Each structure stands twice: as C-alpha cells, then as structure tokens.
Amino acid sequence: MGRMTYLWGDDAGDFRPERWLNNGVFQPQSPFKFTAFHAGPRICLGKDFAYRQMKIVSIALIRFFHFKLANETKQVTYKTLLTLHIDGGLPLCAVSRKTF
C-alpha cells in the first residue's frame, strides 16, 4: 500500500517528504494507509515508541554528521520485495560536521 498510485498519486514511488506538508504545516494522513502499524483497535502497541526512537536517532545523526553518496555517479534503483529495498545497498559517507 505504501507505493500504490491510487492512494499516493503518480509519484508514489518517489521519496517526497513534502507530500505531508501544506505550506510547511504537517498534514496527517489516515492511519489505515500505513500497513506497518495498522490502525483501529488492533494498532501496534509499540508504534509511538518506534516513532519517538526514529526521531531521536535521526536528530542525533543529522546534528553530528553530514551524509553524501559514496559514489555520486551511481544511479540509485529500487528492488520491490515485501518491503522496498535499494538495489545493491546505499553506500554513504558520513562526515563529522565539526570538520567542514
């Protein structure tokens, strides 16, 4: 469901975080669109903890590191399986923000 065009539009396969913003303000979507945690009476009990943990780790990484592709000439392609995988992985270089 995360890549279905009838739910997310023709660019469903593209990474576009701004699709959840309206003039810079977060616009929540129906929780039933996200299959990882489900919704309603059978919602995952660890959903809030998982979101909080994701935000803390992301903030810490972005605060201390600048990320860039290890090979900037390589085209990034996806492999569709049960979950979306990056074909061949995504080698990154992490550079300490103190050094640049």
UniProtKB/TrEMBL annotation:
InterPro entries: Cyt_P450, Cyt_P450_CS, Cyt_P450_sf
Entry keyword Nucleotide-binding: no
Biological process annotations from GO: lipid metabolic process
Molecular function terms from GO: heme binding; iron ion binding; monooxygenase activity; oxidoreductase activity, acting on paired donors, with incorporation or reduction of molecular oxygen
Keywords: Heme, Iron, Metal-binding, Monooxygenase, Oxidoreductase
Cofactor: heme
Gene3D superfamilies for the chain: Cytochrome P450
Protein family per UniProt: Belongs to the cytochrome P450 family.
Protein name as annotated: Cytochrome P
Organism this protein belongs to: Trema orientale
